[in-house]
Design a protein that fits this description.
The structure holds 2 protein chains of 2 kinds.
Chain A (H helix, E strand, L loop, with lengths): L1 H20 L7 H11 L6 H9 L2 H16 L6 H16 L6 H16 L6 H7 L6 H14 L9 H24 L1
Helix pairs in contact in A: 1-9, 3-5, 4-5, 4-6, 5-6, 6-8
Chain B lengths: L6 H11 L2 E9 L3 E8 L5 E7 L2 H4 L3 H8 L3 H12 L11 E5 L2 E7 L3 E2 L2 H4 L5 H4 L9 H20 L12 E3 L5 E3 L38 H16 L7 E3 L2 E3 L1 H9 L14 H4 L1 H5 L1 H10 L10 H5 L2 H6 L4 H22 L1
Antiparallel strand pairs in B: 1-2, 2-3, 3-5, 4-5, 6-7, 7-8, 9-10
The chains are: A mainly alpha, B alpha+beta.
Pfam families (chain B): Pkinase
Keywords (chain B): ATP-binding, Nucleotide-binding
InterPro entries (chain B): Kinase-like_dom_sf (IPR011009), MAPK (IPR050117), Prot_kinase_dom (IPR000719), Protein_kinase_ATP_BS (IPR017441), Tyr_kinase_AS (IPR008266)
Chain lengths: ~180, ~350
Protein backbone atom coordinates (compact mmCIF):
# COMPACT_ATOMS: atom_id res chain seq x y z
CA UNK A 1 0.00 0.00 0.00
CA UNK A 2 2.83 2.35 0.85
CA UNK A 3 4.18 1.67 -2.64
CA UNK A 4 0.99 2.85 -4.36
CA UNK A 5 0.98 5.85 -2.09
CA UNK A 6 4.46 6.85 -3.03
CA UNK A 7 3.64 6.36 -6.69
CA UNK A 8 0.63 8.62 -6.38
CA UNK A 9 2.85 11.17 -4.73
CA UNK A 10 5.47 10.98 -7.43
CA UNK A 11 2.79 11.41 -10.07
CA UNK A 12 1.61 14.53 -8.33
CA UNK A 13 5.15 15.82 -8.32
CA UNK A 14 5.55 14.94 -11.98
CA UNK A 15 2.49 16.89 -13.06
CA UNK A 16 3.81 19.98 -11.32
CA UNK A 17 7.12 19.37 -13.06
CA UNK A 18 5.40 19.06 -16.43
CA UNK A 19 4.38 22.69 -16.19
CA UNK A 20 7.99 23.62 -15.52
CA UNK A 21 9.12 21.58 -18.51
CA UNK A 22 6.92 23.70 -20.77
CA UNK A 23 8.79 26.82 -19.89
CA UNK A 24 9.34 28.38 -23.33
CA UNK A 25 12.99 29.12 -22.66
CA UNK A 26 13.71 25.54 -21.58
CA UNK A 27 11.64 23.39 -23.90
CA UNK A 28 11.24 23.46 -27.64
CA UNK A 29 8.18 25.66 -27.25
CA UNK A 30 9.79 28.46 -29.23
CA UNK A 31 10.66 26.13 -32.10
CA UNK A 32 7.16 24.64 -32.09
CA UNK A 33 5.62 28.12 -32.25
CA UNK A 34 7.80 28.99 -35.20
CA UNK A 35 7.05 25.75 -37.01
CA UNK A 36 3.31 26.39 -36.56
CA UNK A 37 3.82 29.80 -38.10
CA UNK A 38 5.81 28.39 -41.03
CA UNK A 39 3.25 25.62 -41.53
CA UNK A 40 0.62 28.20 -42.50
CA UNK A 41 2.61 28.94 -45.63
CA UNK A 42 2.15 25.39 -46.82
CA UNK A 43 -1.59 25.04 -46.23
CA UNK A 44 -3.96 24.18 -49.08
CA UNK A 45 -6.42 26.92 -50.05
CA UNK A 46 -9.76 27.36 -48.27
CA UNK A 47 -11.65 26.98 -51.55
CA UNK A 48 -9.97 23.63 -52.17
CA UNK A 49 -10.81 22.42 -48.67
CA UNK A 50 -14.46 23.39 -49.15
CA UNK A 51 -14.63 21.63 -52.52
CA UNK A 52 -12.89 18.50 -51.28
CA UNK A 53 -15.23 18.22 -48.29
CA UNK A 54 -18.19 17.97 -50.62
CA UNK A 55 -16.65 14.99 -52.41
CA UNK A 56 -13.83 13.56 -50.28
CA UNK A 57 -13.65 10.04 -51.81
CA UNK A 58 -11.39 10.95 -54.70
CA UNK A 59 -8.72 12.53 -52.51
CA UNK A 60 -8.95 9.70 -50.00
CA UNK A 61 -8.47 7.15 -52.77
CA UNK A 62 -5.32 8.93 -54.01
CA UNK A 63 -3.95 9.36 -50.50
CA UNK A 64 -4.52 5.68 -49.70
CA UNK A 65 -2.78 4.67 -52.90
CA UNK A 66 0.15 6.92 -52.01
CA UNK A 67 0.36 5.33 -48.56
CA UNK A 68 0.40 1.83 -50.08
CA UNK A 69 3.13 2.77 -52.54
CA UNK A 70 5.23 4.42 -49.83
CA UNK A 71 4.95 1.31 -47.68
CA UNK A 72 5.77 -1.06 -50.56
CA UNK A 73 8.82 0.94 -51.55
CA UNK A 74 9.97 1.15 -47.94
CA UNK A 75 10.05 4.92 -48.02
CA UNK A 76 11.16 7.00 -45.08
CA UNK A 77 8.27 7.95 -42.79
CA UNK A 78 8.42 11.58 -43.92
CA UNK A 79 7.74 10.80 -47.58
CA UNK A 80 4.03 10.00 -47.28
CA UNK A 81 2.85 13.09 -45.35
CA UNK A 82 4.99 15.32 -47.56
CA UNK A 83 3.61 13.81 -50.78
CA UNK A 84 0.00 14.29 -49.61
CA UNK A 85 0.84 17.89 -48.69
CA UNK A 86 2.25 18.41 -52.20
CA UNK A 87 -0.84 16.77 -53.72
CA UNK A 88 -3.20 19.06 -51.80
CA UNK A 89 -1.24 22.16 -52.63
CA UNK A 90 -1.03 21.26 -56.31
CA UNK A 91 -4.77 20.65 -56.48
CA UNK A 92 -5.37 23.90 -54.56
CA UNK A 93 -3.50 25.79 -57.23
CA UNK A 94 -4.96 24.03 -60.27
CA UNK A 95 -8.42 23.09 -58.92
CA UNK A 96 -8.65 20.40 -61.58
CA UNK A 97 -7.69 16.76 -61.47
CA UNK A 98 -5.25 15.84 -64.26
CA UNK A 99 -6.05 13.11 -66.80
CA UNK A 100 -4.01 10.63 -64.81
CA UNK A 101 -4.50 11.29 -61.10
CA UNK A 102 -2.17 8.43 -60.20
CA UNK A 103 0.57 10.02 -62.23
CA UNK A 104 0.06 13.15 -60.11
CA UNK A 105 0.22 11.18 -56.85
CA UNK A 106 3.33 9.35 -58.10
CA UNK A 107 4.94 12.69 -59.04
CA UNK A 108 4.32 13.96 -55.51
CA UNK A 109 5.91 10.82 -54.02
CA UNK A 110 8.89 11.22 -56.35
CA UNK A 111 9.51 14.83 -55.28
CA UNK A 112 8.96 14.07 -51.58
CA UNK A 113 11.43 11.21 -51.84
CA UNK A 114 14.05 13.35 -53.57
CA UNK A 115 13.69 15.92 -50.83
CA UNK A 116 14.08 13.66 -47.86
CA UNK A 117 15.79 10.37 -48.74
CA UNK A 118 19.32 9.62 -49.77
CA UNK A 119 18.27 6.63 -51.91
CA UNK A 120 15.19 7.93 -53.58
CA UNK A 121 12.38 6.01 -55.24
CA UNK A 122 12.87 5.58 -59.00
CA UNK A 123 10.36 6.57 -61.62
CA UNK A 124 10.30 2.94 -62.80
CA UNK A 125 9.23 1.67 -59.40
CA UNK A 126 6.41 4.20 -59.31
CA UNK A 127 5.27 3.29 -62.82
CA UNK A 128 5.20 -0.37 -61.82
CA UNK A 129 3.20 0.48 -58.68
CA UNK A 130 0.61 2.17 -60.89
CA UNK A 131 0.51 -0.93 -63.12
CA UNK A 132 2.09 1.01 -65.98
CA UNK A 133 -0.91 3.30 -66.47
CA UNK A 134 1.65 6.00 -67.35
CA UNK A 135 5.22 6.09 -68.73
CA UNK A 136 8.34 7.31 -66.93
CA UNK A 137 8.40 10.22 -69.39
CA UNK A 138 4.86 11.23 -68.31
CA UNK A 139 6.01 11.10 -64.74
CA UNK A 140 9.02 13.28 -65.45
CA UNK A 141 6.83 15.83 -67.13
CA UNK A 142 4.37 15.72 -64.24
CA UNK A 143 7.22 16.25 -61.81
CA UNK A 144 8.17 19.47 -63.59
CA UNK A 145 4.56 20.65 -63.75
CA UNK A 146 4.17 20.12 -59.99
CA UNK A 147 7.45 21.90 -59.23
CA UNK A 148 6.55 24.82 -61.50
CA UNK A 149 3.01 25.08 -60.07
CA UNK A 150 4.33 25.13 -56.51
CA UNK A 151 7.17 27.45 -57.57
CA UNK A 152 9.66 24.92 -56.17
CA UNK A 153 8.49 25.76 -52.67
CA UNK A 154 8.20 22.10 -51.72
CA UNK A 155 9.83 21.72 -48.32
CA UNK A 156 6.56 21.83 -46.41
CA UNK A 157 6.29 21.44 -42.66
CA UNK A 158 4.82 18.03 -41.83
CA UNK A 159 3.78 16.34 -38.56
CA UNK A 160 7.20 14.69 -38.51
CA UNK A 161 8.79 18.10 -38.01
CA UNK A 162 6.94 18.51 -34.73
CA UNK A 163 7.44 15.00 -33.35
CA UNK A 164 11.06 15.33 -32.13
CA UNK A 165 10.11 18.45 -30.18
CA UNK A 166 7.08 16.79 -28.61
CA UNK A 167 9.14 13.70 -27.82
CA UNK A 168 11.81 15.86 -26.19
CA UNK A 169 9.11 17.21 -23.86
CA UNK A 170 7.92 13.69 -23.04
CA UNK A 171 11.50 12.58 -22.35
CA UNK A 172 12.00 15.52 -20.00
CA UNK A 173 8.86 14.46 -18.20
CA UNK A 174 10.03 10.86 -17.93
CA UNK A 175 13.36 11.96 -16.56
CA UNK A 176 11.46 14.00 -14.01
CA UNK A 177 9.40 10.91 -13.09
CA UNK A 178 12.49 8.78 -12.66
CA UNK A 179 14.34 11.21 -10.47
CA UNK A 180 11.20 11.58 -8.38
CA UNK A 181 10.76 7.86 -7.77
CA UNK A 182 14.45 7.58 -6.92
CA UNK A 183 13.89 10.18 -4.28
CA UNK B 1 -10.03 18.47 -66.76
CA UNK B 2 -6.83 18.94 -68.60
CA UNK B 3 -3.31 17.78 -68.21
CA UNK B 4 -1.32 20.92 -67.60
CA UNK B 5 1.66 21.19 -69.88
CA UNK B 6 5.07 22.59 -69.06
CA UNK B 7 5.82 23.24 -72.74
CA UNK B 8 4.71 26.82 -72.50
CA UNK B 9 6.83 27.46 -69.44
CA UNK B 10 9.91 26.03 -71.03
CA UNK B 11 9.73 28.09 -74.18
CA UNK B 12 9.09 31.29 -72.23
CA UNK B 13 12.12 30.65 -70.09
CA UNK B 14 14.28 29.99 -73.13
CA UNK B 15 13.53 33.32 -74.73
CA UNK B 16 14.33 34.99 -71.44
CA UNK B 17 17.65 33.24 -71.18
CA UNK B 18 18.68 34.74 -74.51
CA UNK B 19 18.64 38.10 -72.78
CA UNK B 20 21.72 37.16 -70.81
CA UNK B 21 25.27 36.99 -72.09
CA UNK B 22 27.30 34.19 -70.55
CA UNK B 23 30.68 35.34 -69.28
CA UNK B 24 33.48 33.67 -67.36
CA UNK B 25 33.12 30.74 -64.96
CA UNK B 26 33.16 32.08 -61.41
CA UNK B 27 32.68 28.86 -59.50
CA UNK B 28 32.43 25.12 -59.73
CA UNK B 29 30.31 23.42 -57.13
CA UNK B 30 29.52 19.79 -56.50
CA UNK B 31 26.33 20.08 -58.48
CA UNK B 32 27.25 22.38 -61.32
CA UNK B 33 28.97 25.42 -62.70
CA UNK B 34 28.38 29.09 -61.89
CA UNK B 35 28.83 31.66 -64.68
CA UNK B 36 28.97 35.41 -64.50
CA UNK B 37 26.30 36.71 -66.87
CA UNK B 38 25.27 40.13 -68.09
CA UNK B 39 21.71 41.16 -68.85
CA UNK B 40 21.72 42.50 -72.41
CA UNK B 41 18.79 44.82 -71.69
CA UNK B 42 19.93 46.48 -68.48
CA UNK B 43 23.67 45.77 -68.44
CA UNK B 44 23.32 44.40 -64.91
CA UNK B 45 25.60 41.57 -63.81
CA UNK B 46 24.25 38.35 -62.30
CA UNK B 47 25.45 34.88 -61.40
CA UNK B 48 23.95 31.93 -63.26
CA UNK B 49 24.18 28.59 -61.53
CA UNK B 50 23.73 25.70 -63.95
CA UNK B 51 22.95 22.42 -62.31
CA UNK B 52 24.75 19.68 -64.13
CA UNK B 53 22.27 17.45 -65.90
CA UNK B 54 22.12 13.79 -64.90
CA UNK B 55 23.29 12.95 -68.42
CA UNK B 56 26.68 14.49 -67.79
CA UNK B 57 27.06 12.99 -64.35
CA UNK B 58 26.33 9.37 -65.06
CA UNK B 59 27.84 6.78 -67.31
CA UNK B 60 24.80 4.81 -68.44
CA UNK B 61 23.17 7.94 -69.74
CA UNK B 62 19.92 6.98 -71.44
CA UNK B 63 18.81 4.71 -68.65
CA UNK B 64 19.52 7.20 -65.88
CA UNK B 65 18.10 10.06 -67.84
CA UNK B 66 14.78 8.31 -68.14
CA UNK B 67 14.47 7.47 -64.47
CA UNK B 68 15.97 10.42 -62.67
CA UNK B 69 14.13 13.47 -63.99
CA UNK B 70 14.90 16.58 -61.95
CA UNK B 71 18.02 16.13 -59.83
CA UNK B 72 17.32 15.72 -56.14
CA UNK B 73 20.02 18.29 -55.37
CA UNK B 74 18.09 20.81 -57.48
CA UNK B 75 14.79 20.01 -55.77
CA UNK B 76 16.44 20.36 -52.37
CA UNK B 77 18.32 23.56 -53.03
CA UNK B 78 15.39 25.32 -54.65
CA UNK B 79 12.85 24.28 -52.04
CA UNK B 80 15.27 25.43 -49.39
CA UNK B 81 15.93 28.78 -51.04
CA UNK B 82 12.23 29.44 -51.52
CA UNK B 83 11.53 28.54 -47.89
CA UNK B 84 14.18 31.06 -46.82
CA UNK B 85 13.19 33.74 -49.32
CA UNK B 86 13.59 37.29 -48.04
CA UNK B 87 16.28 36.74 -45.42
CA UNK B 88 19.01 39.40 -45.81
CA UNK B 89 21.86 36.90 -45.35
CA UNK B 90 20.61 34.16 -47.67
CA UNK B 91 21.18 34.35 -51.43
CA UNK B 92 17.99 35.11 -53.40
CA UNK B 93 16.86 33.68 -56.71
CA UNK B 94 15.80 36.14 -59.39
CA UNK B 95 14.75 33.69 -62.05
CA UNK B 96 14.81 30.09 -63.10
CA UNK B 97 15.49 28.73 -66.58
CA UNK B 98 14.67 25.27 -67.81
CA UNK B 99 16.42 24.13 -70.94
CA UNK B 100 15.74 20.49 -71.67
CA UNK B 101 17.30 18.57 -68.81
CA UNK B 102 19.21 21.53 -67.48
CA UNK B 103 18.00 23.88 -64.83
CA UNK B 104 19.72 27.20 -64.30
CA UNK B 105 19.22 29.68 -61.46
CA UNK B 106 19.76 33.39 -61.88
CA UNK B 107 21.09 34.96 -58.70
CA UNK B 108 22.59 38.29 -57.72
CA UNK B 109 26.31 38.50 -58.43
CA UNK B 110 28.41 38.58 -55.27
CA UNK B 111 31.96 39.68 -56.06
CA UNK B 112 33.72 38.04 -53.10
CA UNK B 113 33.64 34.86 -51.04
CA UNK B 114 34.98 34.14 -47.60
CA UNK B 115 37.90 32.16 -49.05
CA UNK B 116 39.82 35.42 -48.59
CA UNK B 117 40.34 34.42 -44.97
CA UNK B 118 42.81 31.67 -45.87
CA UNK B 119 45.26 33.07 -48.28
CA UNK B 120 45.02 36.33 -46.46
CA UNK B 121 47.04 36.80 -43.36
CA UNK B 122 45.81 35.98 -39.93
CA UNK B 123 45.31 38.61 -37.33
CA UNK B 124 48.76 38.79 -35.90
CA UNK B 125 51.17 38.80 -38.80
CA UNK B 126 51.89 42.50 -38.53
CA UNK B 127 53.43 42.13 -35.08
CA UNK B 128 55.80 39.39 -36.16
CA UNK B 129 57.24 41.22 -39.12
CA UNK B 130 58.96 44.54 -39.00
CA UNK B 131 56.81 46.15 -41.69
CA UNK B 132 53.07 46.61 -41.46
CA UNK B 133 51.15 44.04 -43.49
CA UNK B 134 47.50 44.32 -44.45
CA UNK B 135 45.60 42.14 -42.02
CA UNK B 136 42.02 41.15 -41.45
CA UNK B 137 40.57 43.20 -38.58
CA UNK B 138 38.89 41.34 -35.73
CA UNK B 139 35.68 43.24 -36.41
CA UNK B 140 35.42 41.50 -39.80
CA UNK B 141 35.76 38.07 -38.19
CA UNK B 142 32.96 38.89 -35.74
CA UNK B 143 30.95 40.61 -38.51
CA UNK B 144 30.86 37.66 -40.90
CA UNK B 145 30.28 35.13 -38.14
CA UNK B 146 27.32 37.08 -36.73
CA UNK B 147 25.75 37.39 -40.19
CA UNK B 148 26.27 33.69 -40.92
CA UNK B 149 24.77 32.91 -37.49
CA UNK B 150 21.84 35.13 -38.43
CA UNK B 151 21.14 33.05 -41.52
CA UNK B 152 21.70 29.79 -39.62
CA UNK B 153 19.40 30.77 -36.77
CA UNK B 154 16.66 31.47 -39.32
CA UNK B 155 17.27 28.16 -41.14
CA UNK B 156 17.58 26.05 -38.01
CA UNK B 157 14.34 27.53 -36.66
CA UNK B 158 12.70 26.10 -39.76
CA UNK B 159 14.36 22.72 -39.28
CA UNK B 160 16.61 23.29 -42.27
CA UNK B 161 20.29 22.37 -42.04
CA UNK B 162 22.79 23.87 -44.49
CA UNK B 163 25.02 20.77 -44.52
CA UNK B 164 27.91 22.25 -46.52
CA UNK B 165 28.98 25.44 -44.85
CA UNK B 166 32.47 26.35 -46.13
CA UNK B 167 34.17 29.67 -46.89
CA UNK B 168 33.42 29.05 -50.58
CA UNK B 169 29.68 29.07 -49.89
CA UNK B 170 29.70 32.24 -47.86
CA UNK B 171 29.42 35.02 -50.44
CA UNK B 172 30.11 38.68 -49.78
CA UNK B 173 28.51 41.62 -51.55
CA UNK B 174 30.36 44.80 -52.45
CA UNK B 175 29.71 46.25 -48.98
CA UNK B 176 30.68 42.94 -47.31
CA UNK B 177 27.17 41.76 -46.45
CA UNK B 178 27.15 37.98 -46.05
CA UNK B 179 24.97 35.89 -48.39
CA UNK B 180 24.91 32.20 -47.57
CA UNK B 181 24.60 30.05 -50.71
CA UNK B 182 24.73 26.43 -51.94
CA UNK B 183 22.54 24.77 -49.42
CA UNK B 184 21.56 21.19 -49.20
CA UNK B 185 18.44 20.45 -47.28
CA UNK B 186 17.46 18.31 -44.38
CA UNK B 187 14.49 18.77 -42.20
CA UNK B 188 15.32 17.44 -38.77
CA UNK B 189 12.78 14.70 -39.19
CA UNK B 190 14.46 13.24 -42.25
CA UNK B 191 17.54 12.42 -40.34
CA UNK B 192 19.15 9.39 -41.80
CA UNK B 193 21.06 11.06 -44.61
CA UNK B 194 24.41 10.16 -46.04
CA UNK B 195 27.28 11.22 -43.76
CA UNK B 196 29.33 12.46 -46.71
CA UNK B 197 28.15 15.99 -46.28
CA UNK B 198 30.31 19.02 -45.59
CA UNK B 199 33.71 19.58 -47.18
CA UNK B 200 36.23 17.73 -45.02
CA UNK B 201 38.13 20.45 -43.10
CA UNK B 202 34.76 21.93 -42.05
CA UNK B 203 33.12 18.62 -41.14
CA UNK B 204 32.04 18.09 -37.54
CA UNK B 205 33.63 15.11 -35.72
CA UNK B 206 30.33 13.22 -35.42
CA UNK B 207 30.15 12.97 -39.23
CA UNK B 208 33.40 11.03 -39.61
CA UNK B 209 33.60 7.28 -39.53
CA UNK B 210 32.04 4.58 -41.66
CA UNK B 211 29.72 5.46 -44.50
CA UNK B 212 26.51 4.34 -42.80
CA UNK B 213 23.74 6.93 -42.79
CA UNK B 214 23.77 8.93 -39.58
CA UNK B 215 21.48 11.09 -37.54
CA UNK B 216 22.72 14.60 -37.34
CA UNK B 217 21.50 17.92 -36.14
CA UNK B 218 21.94 21.59 -36.91
CA UNK B 219 25.01 21.50 -34.64
CA UNK B 220 27.06 20.37 -37.69
CA UNK B 221 26.61 23.85 -39.21
CA UNK B 222 27.77 25.46 -35.97
CA UNK B 223 30.97 23.41 -36.06
CA UNK B 224 31.65 24.62 -39.61
CA UNK B 225 31.13 28.20 -38.46
CA UNK B 226 33.59 27.66 -35.60
CA UNK B 227 36.21 26.35 -38.04
CA UNK B 228 35.69 29.36 -40.32
CA UNK B 229 36.32 31.75 -37.41
CA UNK B 230 39.48 29.84 -36.48
CA UNK B 231 40.60 29.90 -40.15
CA UNK B 232 40.09 33.65 -40.28
CA UNK B 233 42.18 34.15 -37.15
CA UNK B 234 45.03 31.95 -38.33
CA UNK B 235 44.93 32.87 -42.01
CA UNK B 236 44.91 29.22 -43.09
CA UNK B 237 42.72 26.11 -43.13
CA UNK B 238 43.34 24.94 -39.57
CA UNK B 239 41.97 21.43 -39.96
CA UNK B 240 43.44 20.71 -43.41
CA UNK B 241 45.20 17.35 -43.44
CA UNK B 242 48.92 17.81 -43.06
CA UNK B 243 52.27 16.07 -43.29
CA UNK B 244 53.84 15.45 -39.94
CA UNK B 245 56.91 13.32 -39.37
CA UNK B 246 56.55 10.18 -41.46
CA UNK B 247 52.93 10.38 -42.57
CA UNK B 248 49.79 12.38 -43.15
CA UNK B 249 47.53 13.42 -40.31
CA UNK B 250 43.91 13.51 -41.43
CA UNK B 251 41.40 16.21 -40.54
CA UNK B 252 39.69 13.83 -38.14
CA UNK B 253 42.96 12.94 -36.39
CA UNK B 254 43.80 16.62 -35.93
CA UNK B 255 40.35 17.24 -34.43
CA UNK B 256 40.62 14.27 -32.07
CA UNK B 257 44.16 15.16 -31.01
CA UNK B 258 43.36 18.78 -30.26
CA UNK B 259 39.73 18.85 -29.12
CA UNK B 260 38.63 15.43 -27.89
CA UNK B 261 38.03 15.55 -24.12
CA UNK B 262 39.99 13.03 -21.99
CA UNK B 263 36.89 11.33 -20.64
CA UNK B 264 35.54 10.62 -24.15
CA UNK B 265 35.60 7.08 -25.61
CA UNK B 266 37.55 8.35 -28.62
CA UNK B 267 40.13 10.15 -26.47
CA UNK B 268 43.58 9.94 -28.12
CA UNK B 269 46.70 8.46 -26.54
CA UNK B 270 48.75 11.54 -27.23
CA UNK B 271 47.01 14.84 -27.63
CA UNK B 272 48.21 18.03 -29.27
CA UNK B 273 48.41 21.37 -27.61
CA UNK B 274 45.61 23.52 -28.98
CA UNK B 275 47.88 26.59 -28.55
CA UNK B 276 50.04 25.23 -31.39
CA UNK B 277 47.12 24.46 -33.70
CA UNK B 278 45.36 27.82 -33.38
CA UNK B 279 47.68 30.24 -31.54
CA UNK B 280 45.92 33.43 -32.60
CA UNK B 281 42.55 32.14 -31.43
CA UNK B 282 43.94 31.14 -28.05
CA UNK B 283 45.62 34.48 -27.53
CA UNK B 284 42.45 36.56 -27.84
CA UNK B 285 40.19 35.91 -24.83
CA UNK B 286 36.98 36.83 -26.65
CA UNK B 287 37.63 34.74 -29.78
CA UNK B 288 38.89 31.85 -27.67
CA UNK B 289 35.66 31.85 -25.68
CA UNK B 290 33.51 31.83 -28.85
CA UNK B 291 35.53 29.32 -30.85
CA UNK B 292 35.85 26.81 -28.02
CA UNK B 293 32.09 26.91 -27.50
CA UNK B 294 31.57 26.17 -31.21
CA UNK B 295 34.28 23.53 -31.55
CA UNK B 296 33.06 21.23 -28.81
CA UNK B 297 33.68 17.59 -29.61
CA UNK B 298 30.28 16.57 -28.26
CA UNK B 299 27.54 17.95 -30.51
CA UNK B 300 25.05 18.48 -27.67
CA UNK B 301 27.42 20.89 -25.91
CA UNK B 302 27.89 23.09 -28.97
CA UNK B 303 26.63 26.68 -29.02
CA UNK B 304 23.50 27.16 -31.17
CA UNK B 305 23.07 29.99 -33.67
CA UNK B 306 20.55 31.96 -31.62
CA UNK B 307 22.76 31.56 -28.54
CA UNK B 308 25.74 33.01 -30.40
CA UNK B 309 23.59 35.98 -31.40
CA UNK B 310 22.78 36.59 -27.74
CA UNK B 311 26.47 37.04 -26.92
CA UNK B 312 26.56 40.81 -26.48
CA UNK B 313 30.33 41.11 -26.43
CA UNK B 314 30.70 39.25 -29.74
CA UNK B 315 27.85 41.11 -31.43
CA UNK B 316 29.39 44.43 -30.37
CA UNK B 317 32.77 43.36 -31.71
CA UNK B 318 31.05 42.85 -35.09
CA UNK B 319 30.73 46.57 -35.71
CA UNK B 320 32.97 47.48 -38.66
CA UNK B 321 34.22 51.00 -39.25
CA UNK B 322 34.59 52.30 -42.82
CA UNK B 323 38.32 51.94 -42.39
CA UNK B 324 37.96 48.28 -41.43
CA UNK B 325 35.76 47.63 -44.46
CA UNK B 326 38.15 49.33 -46.84
CA UNK B 327 41.02 47.35 -45.40
CA UNK B 328 39.21 44.03 -45.99
CA UNK B 329 38.08 45.00 -49.49
CA UNK B 330 41.59 46.11 -50.38
CA UNK B 331 42.95 42.82 -49.07
CA UNK B 332 40.45 40.82 -51.14
CA UNK B 333 41.22 42.76 -54.30
CA UNK B 334 44.97 42.31 -53.82
CA UNK B 335 44.42 38.62 -53.48
CA UNK B 336 42.22 38.41 -56.55
CA UNK B 337 44.97 40.20 -58.49
CA UNK B 338 47.57 37.75 -57.22
CA UNK B 339 45.39 34.81 -58.22
CA UNK B 340 44.73 36.30 -61.64
CA UNK B 341 48.42 36.89 -62.29
CA UNK B 342 49.19 33.31 -61.25
CA UNK B 343 46.85 32.08 -63.96
CA UNK B 344 48.72 33.85 -66.76
Amino acid sequence: QSQTESRAQSQGAASSQLRAAWDPTVSGHRVIQRLLHVEERYMPSMLYITLIQRDPERREELAKWALEVCCECGCDETVFPLSVSLLDRFLSASLSIPVSPYCLAAGCILIASKLTECDNVTADTLCAAAEYSFHPSNLREMERVILATLRWDTAAVTPQDFLPHFLACVEEREDGDRSDSER
Amino acid sequence: LQTPSCEKNTSRSLTQMENYLKGSIIGRGTYGIVYKVTCLKTGKVFALKCHRSPVLRDEDTEQKDATIGVEDATVRELSCLSALRGHPNVIQIHDLFIDGENIAMLMPYAPYTLTVIHNGHGLKVNYDHGKALQVIPLSFVAHFSVQVANALSYMHGRNIIHRDLTPRNVLLTKDLTVKVADMGLARQSSKRMSPNVVTEPYRAPELFGDNSPKDYTCAIDMWSLGVMIADAMEGKVVFAEREKGSGTVSTYDIIVKTLCPRNHVKAPVTSWDIDDVMPNVMECTLVKRIVLQLLTFRENERLLAHELLQDQEWVQAAHMTEEDKNMVIHQIQQQQLRQASKRF
